[in-house]
Design goal:
It is a single chain. About 65% of the residues lie in helices and about 5% in strands. The protein is mainly α.
Length: about 150
């Protein structure tokens, strides 16, 4: 009997301190990602292709230029997540990336790791299908980086 009361008090305490989070839909995440590609990645590719190199053929022939474009995009993405928890696409659709446990912003290196983990999981597609089966709609890169995307009220 005593054990049951202790257990009930323990579970009662956790329900009082827990915060209900709203998780964005998978469609909103995709829309935010596409918006980020157009607002951040496309200008980077344009600058590399037509300002630094001599055009499309030179860009396509250079694996280093393509890698540099992804690297610059990853750094800019990580800076956005580190500073505000939002990229322009996430802000447009009312989402924010936070730490899973503390619900605080991620450090720069965790945000950068989240981007690298995204690149790794996107190559298999398995990591991108995981939100359909996990609590909180977390993709594999979120699980690996200890982050979660939440809806915010604007």
């Amino acid at each position: 009997m005593k054990w049951r009361k202790i257990k009930q008090k323990k579970s009662h305490k956790t329900t009082q301190t827990s915060v209900a989070l709203l998780y964005p839909s998978y469609i909103s995440k995709i829309k935010g990602f596409i918006t980020d590609l157009f607002m951040i990645y496309t200008p980077i590719l344009y600058l590399i292709t037509y300002v630094i190199l001599n055009g499309k053929e030179a860009f396509q022939a250079s694996a280093l230029a393509q890698f540099f474009g992804v690297m610059v995009y990853g750094i800019i993405y990580a800076l956005f997540i580190f500073k505000t928890g939002q990229t322009p696409g996430k802000k447009a659709y009312g989402m924010k990336v936070v730490d899973m446990k503390t619900h605080q912003k991620l450090s720069f290196f965790r945000a950068l790791w989240r981007f690298v983990a995204f690149l790794l999981t996107a190559t298999t597609l398995l990591g991108l299908l995981l939100p359909f089966y996990t609590k909180g709609r977390r993709a594999l890169h979120d699980i690996l980086s200890g982050s979660v995307e939440i809806e915010i009220k604007t």
